[in-house]
């Protein structure tokens, strides 16, 4: 299988390594990034506007750019088009529009490449042997691939990404430096989460906050806790455990 990966960053390289493809080509808006990705392993770099065709195309670009990228590059695939954008409503809609007649799937690795393997929800919009091969290769690499729907996925991302990131970053902005010996069984792990979050790319987190609802509800909950009297706080504490 000949695979074109559009977007030669961290997740594009990860998918290329895990895909089970026989040959991989990278394309990126920054040709140097494509060449750097191609230098890692047996791959090559091609121009973003290449007129070559491939068995499969994977879009590994920012979620806001994914629908347009699918429209631009789907025609370079003869068998399948997939993405690893992390948003599924618009991505799957673009796949249906621009990859009609081809196998189509939207994968979302719920981790950074450095933390692989992990859970990978997928929407298989049009199944076939190439998509099956991708899924089998991801599972063979130790990932748990499970099927979902665009609505269920994006609704879950409101909690596990937008709300979680808001809570962690809010704590990071509000917390003061303390002697580590003061940390409790709660604050210690929370500080570790802060460190892990801030060790990533802020633009990726910004896109998540722009795409998924959730931040405002965390802010409202925090304000309610901050303004609560003793009885109200106890009630909120109980509500949180329900």
TrEMBL record:
<protein>
    <submittedName>
        <fullName>Prephenate dehydrogenase</fullName>
        <ecNumber>1.3.1.12</ecNumber>
    </submittedName>
</protein>
<dbReference type="GO" id="GO:0070403">
    <property type="term" value="F:NAD+ binding"/>
</dbReference>
<dbReference type="GO" id="GO:0008977">
    <property type="term" value="F:prephenate dehydrogenase (NAD+) activity"/>
</dbReference>
<dbReference type="InterPro" id="IPR050812">
    <property type="entry name" value="Preph/Arog_dehydrog"/>
</dbReference>
<keyword id="KW-0560">Oxidoreductase</keyword>
<dbReference type="InterPro" id="IPR036291">
    <property type="entry name" value="NAD(P)-bd_dom_sf"/>
</dbReference>
<dbReference type="GO" id="GO:0006571">
    <property type="term" value="P:tyrosine biosynthetic process"/>
</dbReference>
<dbReference type="InterPro" id="IPR008927">
    <property type="entry name" value="6-PGluconate_DH-like_C_sf"/>
</dbReference>
